[in-house]
Amino acid sequence: MQPIVRWFHQLGSPPTFDRFARRWSRVFHLAALPVLALGLWQALFVVPADYQQGDSFRILFVHVPSAWMSLFVFALMALYAAIALIWRIKLCEVLAMACAPIGAGFTVITLLTGSIWGRPMWGTWWDWDPRLTTELILLFLYMGVIGLYVAIEDRRNAARAAGLLAIVGVALLPVIRYSVDWWGSLHQGQTIRLLGQSTLDASMQVPLWLMVIATKLWFAGSLLAKARADNLQREAGKDWVQRQFQEDA
Amino acid sequence: MSYLGYVVAAYAVFVLVLAVDALGSYLRLRWALRAVRQRRQRQAARRSASHAPLADLELER
Amino acid sequence: MIAPGTEPGLWRTARALAVRDLRMAWRRRGDVLQPVLFAVLVVVLFALALGREPQRLAADAIAVLWLAVLLAGQLALDALFRSDAEDGSLEQWLLAPVPLSWLVLVRVAMHWATTALPLIAISPLLAEMLHLPHDQLPMLLASLLLGTPLLSLIGGVVAALTVGLRRSGILVALLSLPLYVPVLVFGAGSVAAAARGQDPSGALLMLAAGLVAALVLAPLATAAALRISLS
């Protein structure tokens, strides 16, 4: 237990984190590539076409992992923010803010792939499907966090304010989801859900889980890269940065 | 109905956004490192310009 | 230093703050009417955009009224903390002997009383302008009475987060609108459900439950946000 706790403490120090992130962001990105390739190949060529939706159901393999990631990253962002606010750990502020653009990216993927998937099914590019509508609101929440972080001058206060917003957002997210679901059920509109009747059987699980793992690895790589950049920017005046540069130069 | 175009578009969106995200991260890193380098150059220039014997006692920010 | 034993209690400070806020609002009576004017303008613009047929207007009346109240309230949000932040009284709040969240609660309550209550008071008139059927009016008022305090409480968190920013106009809207979604959905939806003969009690209960939760949690979040913004 002790060495693990000590390792976490050391990681909080900016120079240690810089070294850690420098190596591991590349490792995670590189590790994601083969998993991604395998997952894409499985999703596109190995799994047989769905009997109801034909080939378009393959979009599921990018849509669903991205949707899960958009929610997971938001929760993680709020968790980092909570740790940063309660224990005042600077690194967690940086990590929380680095989560935001990545999560927003996954939300955009979810919305666009959902819209593309819906086109052959609904006939329109957009339907106020409760789940897609919730994703849209989630995108606005992400943009709010990023916007607030950018708007405040002092970086620490900016991170803490945006972090508090993320925490409030994560607390309200289930409520928003529930309310939008209720709103969707009020008007018996299109009940064709994107996933439809076909339950995922075993052959479909493999590519799905591969994509889930791939997106998580990619996220870890991007998170560390962005956190490293933010860390460097905040610490630009400190000695260790200058010294690090001397070694690099 | 051919769904090929839709599938291609969806997967393209996925790959593109992830690529842009990773590229953005590395660009931001490059930018941060460049700022550090410029800061170093500015401080070195300031130090050599002043020739003050007490320069190394000054607080660095 | 306050001598021990003579510290003002919760009720004394609440009354002091409430009286002060009401007095300030009375001195700026014109400003207090601005949200009302805005709501009227919104209704007029909607009517102009939708056309003058009574049936058409009546069909959308609930949504338009709720949106007018929501948007007008949001514009008034800036006034929640700004003047106190500018003259430094907000920092005195941080040093007060009473909990910061208590002061926040009183302030939000007074803000609601001076901005949202006039809106609710004028909503029957606006409803008449939009040809809302008279039997829907009580439901509308009930949903507004439950929903507007929620909007004020949630808006308080956003106002506290942005109190340090100079020109934060659209950012406040961007931050608060996603958080307003459940209130809007359940508020307007309850009236719409009742209008269609469905049971609105589920939605109203959700609003009530949300209000109870927000009365406790929102001031805490707002206090935390104020501490961050003023640090």
Tell me what the structure shows.
The complex is a heterotrimer of chains A (249), B (61) and C (231). Chain A has 249 residues and is an all-alpha fold. Chain A is 81% helix and 0% strand. Chain A has 8 helices and no strands. The N and C termini of chain B lie far apart (65 Å). With 231 residues, chain C is mainly alpha-helical. Chain C has one domain (10-230). Chain C is built from 9 helices and no strands. The model of chain C has no long low-confidence stretch (mean pLDDT 92). Chains in contact: A-B, A-C. The interface between A and B is large, with 42 and 30 residues.
Q: Which characteristics define this entry?
A:
heterotrimer, A: 249 residues, mainly alpha, Four Helix Bundle (Hemerythrin (Met), subunit A), 81% helix, globular, B: 61 residues, 1 helix, 77% helix, rod-shaped
SSE topology:
The complex is a heterotrimer of chains A (249), B (61) and C (231).
Chain A: H1 2-11, H2 14-46, H3 60-87, H4 90-122, H5 130-151, H6 155-186, H7 202-234, H8 239-248
Helix pairs in contact in A: 2-7, 3-4, 3-6, 3-7, 4-5, 4-6, 4-7, 5-6
Chain B: H1 4-50
Chain C: H1 10-27, H2 29-50, H3 54-76, H4 82-87, H5 89-94, H6 100-129, H7 137-161, H8 169-195, H9 201-229
Largest interface: A-B, 42 and 30 residues
Distance between the termini of chain C: 22 Å
| Number of DSSP E strands of chain A | 0
CATH class call of chain A? Mainly Alpha
CATH architecture of chain A: Up-down Bundle
Provide the structure class of chain C. mainly alpha
Q: Which fold name is given in CATH as the topology of chain A? A: Four Helix Bundle (Hemerythrin (Met), subunit A)
- The total tally of domains of chain C equals 1
**What can be said about the biggest beta sheet of chain A?**
none
Number of helices of chain A: 8
Outline of chain A, from the CA principal axes? globular
Return the domain count of chain A.
1
Task: Compute the average pLDDT of chain C.
Answer: 92
Taken as a percent bin, the fraction of beta residues of chain A is: under 5%
Number of helices of chain C: 9
Coarse structural class of chain A: mainly alpha
Order of helices and strands of chain C: HHHHHHHHH
Instruction: Tell me which oligomeric state these chains represent.
Output: heterotrimer
Radius of gyration of chain A equals 21 Å
